[in-house]
What does this fold into?
Amino acid sequence: MRFLGRLILLILGLIFAIPAGALTLALGIFSEPAAQELVALIGTAVFDLLFAEAMQNGDPDVVIAEFALGFAFVSLVLLVAPVTFVAISGEVTGTRSVIFYGLVTGLITAAIPWLMRGGFVETAALEAEWRITALLFVTGAVAGFVYWLITGRSAGRRRDPAAGDSTSLRS
It folds into this structure.
């Protein structure tokens, strides 16, 4: 029965943490010029693909479907996967630390673009790249913090049957 309760809390925590991370990322994109430039470049590339496909085949639906699939994949990888991984690992280990949920989720979210391109590049990263990495860190940290607020504070706690009331908890 405890497992079912913790599973429901885990899902509830994720239901709030993922949109909180998405909102943080959206606000960051609106306030960070480097992120705005990246979004503009992606938008221009998609528009160019749509126009080229429409001119060649007359039907840009394939490009729109591929863009939607790519957007869903990026959203899943940046917003859902890190906080879900940290939430499950926190539940399994019984970790209740806000630092664990916020810091680890932030680090994983910020590291994803670096890992997807094969690690660090020998050339120095541009300042804009570090600002986008910081934005991703904050996005993950907010999602982890929101998860901790809802669910993580009570991870690993068990009811003490000897005490007889629901207020006494032991670790």
